[in-house]
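As the next step, I needed to go through one protein, both as residues and as discrete backbone shape codes, included below for the reader:
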Amino acid sequence: MTTTPRAVLAASFAPGDEAVPAARRFTREVMTAWAAMSVSVDAERLAGDLVEEAGDGPFEVMWVHHGDSVQVEVREKGEADAVHPPTNAVSWGVTFSGSARTRWARIDLPGGVGRTSEEWVGEAMHGPGWLGFLADASDLLAGTLDPDMVPAIIAQIVVPRLATWCAVYTVEHGSGDVVPAYLWHADETQMDALRDELADIAMPPGDGPAVLHVGEWQALAFPLTARGRRLGIMCVGRSDRFPDEVMQLAEDLCRRAALAMDNARLYAQQAAANLALQRSLLPPEEPHTPGLDSHVIYEPAGETNEVGGDFYDLFPVGDGVWRFAIGDVCGTGPVAAAVTGLARHALRLLAREGYGVAAVVARLNQAILEEGDRARFLTLLHGEITRTEGGLDINLVSAGHPEALRLRPSGVVEAVASPQSLLGVFPEAEFHEESVRLESGDVLLGVTDGVTERRCGSRLLDDDGGLAKLLAECVDLSARAVAERIRRACQDFAPEPSADDLAILVLRAP
């Protein structure tokens, strides 16, 4: 039997290692918005199963709410091939339309279709049903920090329990204009007509509930205000008069929704600020090193890519001469970021002023100590590369950093720099350069402790020379391939995500 969809939410994804986790996160947000968290685990697993079979091109994941069930569809360009039954699906299949292939699966919702707004209003405002509704609404609103998802959750909490339709508007930063963010109607076929009606209506500027004149609907507008700021408007409508109980509940819900919206915005702003600051502390573009095979991988840890931690640099200082650096500041956050910025910019400035490698490291040590209480100690591998006939000559200093390794074409791996004092601790520390020769095919590897101290239980990746053993398997690989091999080994070493930043620098003599 065919049922009319009650809701549809879709998103597009790119292929790759992050496709399945991204589709599962999207599914969790959809189930949150639809108040269907009881099936969220099964739904995430279902979406993951279908996405794992997606091809190499971009694809779309669409969730369809049928009232008593939810259906996931994965649409992509592709030919007919074998399709395996996804787990937990009560029904599934694959359809083709032109060059597009859609694989779908459906799972049932417990309890079937929820009650309508008229049935809910029949219960006393302070009855267990309404109290449970407000508690569930609070949990749902608090369950996402994505500012784009909050309006969708608000609308789908309201419909159909409080109203037949709900439109959420948000205030744009800067201009202060109110713009539509999300619209939901109990009858999806009427959404386009309702959207057109609302487009011609001016939203009220007041701080209290206001009556809207929307066709034959009884419509009300409630401001979304949190911490003294107007964030948007929630508009609701129904065919009959709004009972006083519903108006009071709508106002209560608006207060909770506005706070959730403000929290999500603040979180998004902080995450964006962290990302912008992190990018400012790293080279603006991938290093260009003609005549030198090099590659760098940098992966900040943490859900919001907190600033600070590891950094790298690779830049020219003359014809056929480059400087490189890979370092790790103790800690994360703004204080560590200050030291990171100081280190990277000082390295460039001093190198281009003609200071040698050891002199640069010594002056950076003094600069960090002069930061006083804000100082954080820093480990650093810094060197100068000179291209010569048949290879590369490198002068380097390893200041408390994980040892640099050289890989010979024969498969022999050896440490090439002795450890010296880390930076920001001893004002009397002295540093000396060491010379390394890379013949054609030799590889130099520098990493931060996000690699060497990658943990699985009580074991570290570099226990018993684990990193050297990994590097020994990289004979005849390009610099990019070596870096990717090390990164993948770090990922596979433990099932849980790394809690530390990771930086990998690979230099290979052509």
